[in-house]
UniProtKB/TrEMBL annotation:
UniProt EC number: 1.13.11.71
Catalytic activity reported: (3R,6R)-3-hydroxy-10'-apo-alpha-carotenal + O2 = (3R,6R)-hydroxy-alpha-ionone + 4,9-dimethyldodeca-2,4,6,8,10-pentaenedial; 13-cis-lycopene + O2 = 13-cis-10'-apo-lycopenal + (3E,5E)-6,10-dimethylundeca-3,5,9-trien-2-one; all-trans-10'-apo-beta-carotenal + O2 = beta-ionone + 4,9-dimethyldodeca-2,4,6,8,10-pentaenedial; all-trans-zeaxanthin + 2 O2 = 4,9-dimethyldodeca-2,4,6,8,10-pentaenedial + 2 (3R)-hydroxy-beta-ionone
Protein name: Carotenoid-cleaving dioxygenase, mitochondrial
Alphabetized UniProt keyword annotations: Dioxygenase, Iron, Lipid metabolism, Metal-binding, Mitochondrion, Oxidoreductase
Length: 612
């Protein structure tokens, strides 16, 4: 989850003013704006405080701000829901499994191209309970890393749990010791009554359970979630090498698990911080090369800081867009109620209960110049939407095209409770049918807005584009989207987990994207979309659930889709029947599969590490 304020002082007289702390919602640390160190919270005399002074913020004022009702936006909603019945039970896809720390062979059927040399690295939750205590949310499970090594048409598999502090503490006590996004760690039963009572006033302990993705900084691989902790790992053995704290290098309290990269390896990311003037979203830049063998995030800088629309309810974001010259931050109306989050432990509530969808707020697109670090004065607005993943962004003829998977409803993040994923029958159908489907869309943002730009007329002059961009004022443009699909995509539940030929076409005009169809709570098909025709190809088989597709270009590729698609396929109906699927990216026909005699839970994201 993205960053938030933690500020609370409790005493016999009630709630008092306290120091404003810049912290991430799932950790008990404060990033200092005046230096790069991180200070832990302390509990002394019934008071939570830090060891440095910043501007003051009243918890009561946070409460008052949390009660302010947003203005209603008079915008027609085009929400797309489904009416599906008879969904199969998928509960085995979210069950705990054992790790496979040593490589094991697979059984290859068909042909895996001999030119593929490297490893598909995947990340996701793999353990959902300790002792008799169970996690509540899909995002809470302990990180399990996977490696499918491909050499000369043969494949081996191994997996390993990330040895995070959270994992080690939970394992040592055989209970949940560290709170996660949807699970509040209970007070230690070994403590006496007074100690357990005081623990309700402590800030939530930090988690370093990096279960979302593999990311690369300065040539090293890390596993990441959305907190201030990432772990450097050995991409061959999957062993945890080093725990790295973002806030030791720059004043942020976390970063997304979806950085973007320039061709030279320069990385861009986003993270939140809290300063004497309130909350900020920050654009981060990490240099491409190390200065020494032990170098991690040294040299990282904050490129730009953006003030939220509402300081008491900043937006949640999972990723962002990037074109050749701009970083695009999407401030969406999935909000974090800081008052509820700050008081969560006192109220016995987990962090996810402070996250909510506000359909009365517009979505705002912020453009930041990558070269100067300046935020562009023009703001682009759209009706309320939610997005987790962008497809691509590129500039052409004075416009910035922003392509992303988005929904008209943002409540999905709190629907992925493990109990929901384990439902069956009518209850499962009802859960699925109440969730808005994610669909690929394009916004066209005009870049050359001046005082002479006419108001109240469509500025999008691109041929065959149905998106609109209308200047409300000299610094405000209201946009509507165009669909990047035909109506028949809805028969497959929309599309998420998008992927492109990133190395050659990220930030550039492109023709193809790939993703998972979602006619279930998890992906149940693989899709290749042609942007020119809006037609698509599908790989789908009964009771098989594919992971995010990863595109691998073939050697000396000339066309955009010359290559293969890799996806990990799992099933809830047959034990130990996982396989790595290899599709021809051009024809979308199966080339081969490597069967693995293990169970793998449904995961999140991954990358291909080429060894060629």
């Amino acid at each position: 989850m993205a960053s938030l304020i933690c500020s609370s002082t409790f005493c016999q007289r009630g709630i008092r003013r306290v120091l404003l702390c810049h912290t991430h919602l799932s950790r008990g640390f404060v990033a200092c704006q005046n230096n790069r160190d991180v200070e832990p919270f302390h509990l002394a005399a019934g008071r939570i405080h830090t060891t440095s002074a910043h501007s003051r913020c009243s918890l009561t004022s946070l409460y008052r701000m949390s009660c302010i009702k947003p203005q209603t936006i008079a915008a027609a909603q085009k929400t797309y829901f489904t009416e599906v019945h008879g969904l199969p039970n998928i509960s085995p896809l979210v069950r705990s499994v054992e790790e496979t720390p040593e490589p094991i062979p697979t059984t290859v059927k068909g042909t895996i191209p001999s030119w593929i040399h490297g490893s598909l690295l995947r990340n996701g939750p793999g353990k959902f309970e300790f002792g008799n205590q169970h996690y509540n949310h899909w995002f809470d499970g302990m990180a399990l890393m996977h490696r499918f090594q491909i050499v000369d048409g043969h494949v081996t598999y191994r997996s390993r749990f990330l040895r995070s502090d959270s994992y080690k503490q939970n394992s040592e006590r055989n209970r949940i010791m560290v709170s996660e996004f949807g699970t509040l760690a209970l007070a230690d039963p070994c403590k006496n009554f007074f100690q357990r009572f005081l623990s309700r006033f402590e800030m939530i302990k930090p988690t370093d359970n990096a279960s979302v993705n593999f990311v690369k900084y300065k040539g090293d691989y890390y596993v990441s979630t959305e907190t201030n902790y990432i772990h450097r790992v050995d991409p061959d053995t999957l062993e945890s090498k080093q725990k790295v704290d973002w806030s030791k290098f720059i004043a942020v309290n976390g970063a997304t698990a979806h950085p973007h990269f320039d061709p030279d390896g320069t990385a861009y990311n986003m993270g939140n911080s809290y300063r004497n003037k309130g909350a900020f979203y920050n654009i981060i830049r990490v240099p491409p090369e190390r200065d020494g063998p032990e170098d991690t995030l040294e040299g990282a800088k904050i490129l730009c800081s953006i003030a939220p629309r509402d300081k008491s309810k900043p937006s949640y974001y999972h990723s962002f867009g990037m074109s050749e010259n701009y970083v695009v931050f999407i401030e969406q109306p999935i909000k974090m109620d800081l008052f509820k989050i700050v008081t969560g432990r006192l109220r016995g509530k987990s962090l996810n209960e402070g996250v909510f969808w506000d359909p009365n707020q517009e979505t705002t697109f912020h453009l930041i110049d990558k070269h100067t670090g300046k935020e562009m004065p023009v703001k682009y607005h759209a009706k309320a939407l939610s997005t987790f993943h962008q497809i691509n962004a590129f500039e052409q003829d004075g416009f910035l095209m922003l392509d992303m998977c988005c929904s008209d409803d943002g409540q999905a993040i709190n629907n992925f409770l493990i109990q929901n994923l384990r439902q069956s029958g009518e209850a499962l159908d009802e859960m699925y049918n109440t969730m808005s489907r994610p669909l690929p869309r394009r916004f066209v943002l005009p870049l050359n807005i001046t005082s002479e730009t006419p108001l109240e007329q469509n500025l999008n002059t691109r041929p065959d584009s149905t998106a609109t961009a209308v200047c409300r004022t000299k610094n405000q443009v209201f946009c509507t989207f165009e669909d990047l699909h035909g109506e028949d995509l809805k028969d497959y539940g929309g599309l998420e987990f998008p992927h492109i030929n990133y190395a050659r076409y990220n930030t550039k005009p492109y023709r193809y994207y790939y993703g998972c169809g979602f006619r279930h709570l998890v992906g149940d098909s693989l899709i290749k979309m042609d942007l020119e025709s809006k037609k698509f190809k599908v790989w789908q088989q009964p009771d098989l659930y594919p992971s995010e597709p990863v595109f691998i270009p073939s050697p000396n590729a000339e066309e955009e889709d010359d290559g293969v698609i890799l996806s990990v396929i799992i099933t809830p109906v047959k034990d130990k029947s996982t396989f790595l699927l290899v599709l021809d990216a051009k024809t979308f026909e199966e080339l081969g599969r490597a069967e693995v005699p293990v169970n793998i839970p449904y995961g999140f994201h991954g990358v291909f590490n080429s060894s060629a």
